[in-house]
Amino acid sequence: MTGRAWERTIAIEEFMEVTDQAWCDALPATAHDVSRRREQRSTRRTPSGQTCTDRRVDNGDGTFSTTTDCRTTYREEPLYDDRCTFRIQRWTPSGTARAAGTGADAPAWPSVAVSPARREGARRESYAATLAEPDGRVHTCTLGQPEWARAAEGTRWTSRVGLVLKDVDCDALKPAR
After folding, report:
1. Which of 77, 84, 136, 160 has the fewest CB atoms nearer than 10 Å to its CB?
2. In a 3-state reduction of DSSP, which class is residue 171?
3. What is the pLDDT of residues 71-110, one digit of tens each?
4. Contact 125/7 with Cβ under 8 angstroms?
């Protein structure tokens, strides 16, 4: 193992007024400054006639009879409804707090200043280990946090290597004995 790195992020959300759209029959109760316009909401298939073709059928006695096969044809008709544009207070993504480190740095979450109008959103974390082969090729594996914690720099690890692309199978990574 020649190197380790980690990254932790926290999405930041703010409660703010935003402009949004919805079909007017699904307008949120707290929406204000509403404007509406007609817009195509869907399409309806309506029968518009038939397409018929004649087909010859062998009667089995050297003669043929003619049958007519008909298929219904359809046309697409737009269906319109009211689409509303409005203002509303909503939790909205406003940025990301990030913390990262390498080597023996202990992973830590970034700090986020919260308030009644600012909160933490989704947390994400990733851990990577760098491996070097004796021939000088370098590979990076994404690991789970428990595996990454056991993968100290300077330790030896084994894995399977692909025959064609010569890539390391990170799922088969194990400490060398």
Report:
1. 136
2. helix
3. 999 999 999 999 999 999 999 999 999 999 998 889 999 9
4. yes
